[in-house]
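Morning - 3-isopropylmalic acid inputs below, output right after.
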Amino acid sequence: MDTLFEILWRQHQIADIGDGIGLIAIDRVMLHERTGGVALKGLAAAGRNILAPAQAFAVMDHIVDTLPGRSDDTLMPTGKAFITETRAAAKAAGIRLFDLHDDRQGICHVISPEQGIVLPGATLVCPDSHTGTQGAFGALAWGIGSSEAEHALTTGTLRVRKPATMRVTVTGRLADGVGAKDLALHIIVLIGSQGAQDHVVEFAGEGITALDIEQRQTLCNMATEMSAFCAIIAPDDVSLSALKGRPFAPRDALWEQAVAHWRTLASHPDATFDREITIDAATVAPMISWGTSPQQSIPVTASIPPHNVGHPRETAANHSRSLAYMGLADGMAVAGEPIDAAFIGSCTNSRLSDLRRAAAIVKGRKVAKGVRAICVPGSKAVKLAAEQQGIAATLIEAGFEWREPGCSMCFFAGGESFGLRERVISTTNRNFESRQGPDTRTHIASPETVAASAIAGHIVDPRSFKDEVAP
Ligand SMILES: CC(C)[C@H](C(=O)O)[C@@H](O)C(=O)O
Ligand code: SF4
């Protein structure tokens, strides 16, 4: 009785190499300028061709400047070369490139579904750790290294160690004001940030099927922070309607044929998983991270617990180091901490519905004095839609900077950053030391919590912030 993962593995396994490793057929390769250009250059240097150029796609997202009027110049000292070399290599290789000024440009994991590149039942790889985001569509999508990307491009295959399976079933529905980001942090606190290592995580249950497709992507994105091999959600009406009519998705009779196949893709009711976890959606509250790992998170209404309480695999030394780095102490509430900046963006929470929920919170209000608030839409398509729908105007009116799409301040190594030791509340997925700038103190949370905190000037529960902030 197969799980969805085992069905997709069987459908793509060309050979069982032994030792738990399969030779897997790869349907799509996505590349970005930070790691993908390296793979393309490596192939060219070795004189190898790309087996199926029509199935490989490159985009500029990590290093590109997100200020209006941008060019190939970037804040990352060696950044320009990544951009120009990726462009040249993609052209020489004859693959599609969504370049800086292309209307389809954006963060790789955001644009792939927008363009219909990811499809249910397909295998998709990208030299980027958050590729599992795209498992929200029922694809087997996982992150690889640059040299694996070279191998996938030139052979259409990869050797893969077969991961174990884990199902996270969410019963009931999330409460109002609680979203997929909160659910993801709740799960990470429960199982730890290594909790899903070497596992494919299938998310299932009413709490998952009730999520819209963008929330599902947020959840699958955060599976990387559980150290999962990747995440997957069985395709259904929600995911299929999100892909219908997309530029690279099949059309007409081919679409119907594909749908008939995709409808068969689900774990058998009697399938057994190596691990099973069940979560009652009613127990999930808006979450906030207090430390330097996503597992160091708490409900926004709670106080920082002493080490080991609810935080598996956390040593006392780790716990103290995180607190010292963050300028916090045991037993403190994180709510109420003044912030220097608020960031809405990244492949976790930069889609239209994320921005819409943030805008609903800030509408008619102003970002607190002294807080730098920035919104970076995940793609040009998101940006244009947000502008057309008045979402951008609401955010700008409130005092948010409105930027061009890209990874931006999710990732200091791309060049853009917040200031020394600044306290930032952020919709991103990683709160590691110096992730968003030199010694920045990042708190990760949902778009609602980030938006509400930007208005309040301190970390706040989005469900009750209106009581604390005058309209
Ligand atoms: C630069 C890239 C390889 C990296 C990743 O793989 O995740 C980045 O996207 C990140 O989020 O840290
Ligand atoms: S938005 Fe952040 S997490 Fe996502 S791919 Fe870019 S750098 Fe990585």
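Note: The first helix runs from residue 4 to 12.

O.
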